[in-house]
Amino acid sequence: MPSPDVLAAYKSLDPELMTAAVDIAREQARALIREGERRMELEASALHRAYRDRWWSLTFGFLVAMGVLGLAAYMAHLGQAVVAGSIASIDIVALASLFIAGSRQKAKSEQLEAAQEPQEKGRHQSGAGAGCQYP
Description:
The chain has helices at 4-13, 15-77, 81-125. By secondary structure, it is an all-alpha fold. It has one domain. The chain is rod-shaped and about 100 Å long.
């Protein structure tokens, strides 16, 4: 938006020029607001999808693990102790490895987020509107 002195100079040249400059500035502000709202919608949608995918993964993982343990219990019931023990052992080792891999992935993503925070702060401090405070 031009300064008041520049707007007054525009108005002295042509009264419609000042109105056009103000209208352009307002439209740019509206476009920035719409862009920000769209980005927030996209981020919310991505978070919702990630939450839903994680929930379904945990649910099906639990069902599969319980199914395999049920199979091991059935094999034990039939008198196949070695087979039941092998199935149960494989299931428990697989579950433990998944938990370990999940905790490593979580730690890695936390490190990535921590590394990106200074970049985000720098992005808001530069360019048009430098020095503006964002919530």
